[in-house]
Amino acid sequence: MIILTRLNDEKFTLNALYIEQIQSFPDTTITLTTGKKIVVKEKEHDVSEMIEHFYKRIGLTPLIRRPDQTGSGEKEG
Predict the structure, then answer these.
(1) Which CATH number do you get for residue 58?
(2) pLDDT digits (tens, 9 = 90+) for 31-71
(3) How many CB atoms lie within 10 A of CB 70?
(4) What is the span of the domain harbouring residue 17?
(5) How many domains are contained in the chain?
(6) ∠76-68-13 over CA atoms, to 5°?
């Protein structure tokens, strides 16, 4: 779970497992797997870091690869 802030300064907790994508329009917009969109005050990069920290806490980190990683652990290119 991650704690985020709506544009009206209301704090809420979101289960990060339901996040499908994060975009900046310029406001940070989170799209959930249900199709629901949530606009938050936090920057896209900060939300991504919160998600990564959450995944580490629950033990999902070994299952996640960043786009710049190959299966061998070396950078492509």
Answers:
(1) 2.40.50
(2) 999 999 999 999 999 999 999 999 999 988 765 565 665 55
(3) 10
(4) 2-63
(5) 1
(6) 170
